[in-house]
Amino acid sequence: MTPPLDPNPLDLACAAWRAIPGVAEVLSQDAAQQAYGSDTGGSTRTIRAAVRIVKNDGDDDCVSAVMRVASQHGIAVHPISTGRNWGYGTALPTGEGSVILDLGGLKEWSFDAELGVVTLQPGVTQGMLADFLDSKQHPYMVPVTGAGPSCSLLSNALERGYGVTPHTDHFGAVTDIEAVLADGSLYRTTLREAGTEELARLFKWGLGPHTAPLFTQSGYGVVTRMSIVLARRPEVVKVCLFNLKDDALLETAVERVRHILRSLPGTVGGINLMNRHRVLAMNAPYPDSPPDANGQIPLDVIETLGRQYQIAPWTGFCTLYGTRTMVAAAQKEIKRALAGVGTRMLFLSPGNARTLAKLARLLPGGAGQRLGSTAATLAKSLDLVAGRPNETALPLAYWRNPGKQPDDGRDPGRDGCGLLWYAPLVPMRPQYARAYVNLVTRVAKKHGMEPLLTFTSVNERLFDSTVPLLFDRNQPEAVARARACYKELLEEGRKIGVFPYRVGVDTMQAIKVNQTHSLAFHARLKNALDPGNLVAPGRYQ
């Protein structure tokens, strides 16, 4: 008689997971691949299964039980919130063969309206929090990003994302987290363990070693709860728009931006400098004209579109927050600082921008349509600045997508968009900015990609630049060009002193180059907390 085969560990784990209260569904490999396997970067992974969780309460909770089962059977899991990490891997695991642990069904939160602290689970999105704050008339702002209303607040903070509201550094506004480790045990901060939960929400440093940041950009545990301090909505929200009419003014503009940020801390939230290519991609359809010999939009076409849409070589976008007196004084200082550099300077509130968009729609002909498109984008951008999430930045992902773009509910992964983000940190020095622009322009030209470039101030010393590599995901050669372009940007950027602050799932192995001491230290931590390498294996490892 043939002895019975040993049960498959994954089958045993799936059976155990289905019996856990709070687990809504366990998907088979085929169903999991269908639900989570689509990526804007054109990457693929084998996803063995997926576990969807909808309830997580108390010490003996669902996520802990799921991880105990995973540990018992040696099954690696990849936790996600909403899985909308577009341009960085979408919902894909870093490596092959993980089970997706979908926490998007965890949507509970509590809000301290007096002190402005929200405590939330992974499935709480920017849009959900914005709707709640508006419906209750709470005067606080959502820490928004351009990824849209359907994206998780918790996950963006864990990836150390940036936004445009006063708390630009999203993890910087985090005060407390809870997590589940690989063996199902819990992580809590010292003040929370002491029974002083309110203090834990109000004082991020806690007592003793400050360990909460270890759970950012890592696979040390599954974060299930987070407290975030919200910025209070100020009396006045405005933006300053200005143009650089000549690319040669960039270096001087960088110096003036640095001066403004140093002179007006707290009133100026952040400053963006966007090249013409980038602004056109947000406002104009991709042109029908044939590409040049490099596969790019011909320069004369870019210049013609710039005139038609009234977009200069560089566009500046500066956010202001404060009382009427503070903002009025800041406007005068900004005008002085940008004298001789910035032209066509405008100071607009969200209401001003909406009025401008309405008036622009009344203008006849193609010129009116183009101005209306730019004004509508501007109005939605000012709503973002005011802490109200929307999809104004998402059409960028569809610029090279041959399919029809939805009017709402955009999902670049689902809709076949091709997008990879190159997002390096750039010192706020004029020579670095110019060397970096030259690098992006040269490498993009080599690979037939459009050089869509933005500088965003992180502080008075540093820019975060974002370069979206857009391509037709249905064309294998276009996917290959985009990946080759990214690889060269990464390698050549490091040589001139710029390097990403976050990367996608296909790059997490490549960034280990020249990492000796830090890599060894992280390996020791991972081995201590997760010796079986079961939580997000390969994530920034």
UniProtKB/TrEMBL annotation:
InterPro entries (UniProt xref): Cytok_DH_C_sf, FAD-bd_PCMH, FAD-bd_PCMH-like_sf, FAD-bd_PCMH_sub1, FAD-bd_PCMH_sub2, FAD-linked_Oxase-like_C, Oxid_FAD_bind_N
Molecular-function annotations in GO: D-lactate dehydrogenase (cytochrome) activity; D-lactate dehydrogenase (NAD+) activity; FAD binding
Protein's name in the database: FAD-binding protein
Keyword vocabulary terms for this entry: FAD, Flavoprotein
Organism of this sequence: Pseudoduganella rivuli
Domain of life, source organism: Bacteria
GO BP of this protein: lactate catabolic process
Family to which this protein belongs: Belongs to the FAD-binding oxidoreductase/transferase type 4 family.
Keyword rRNA-binding: no
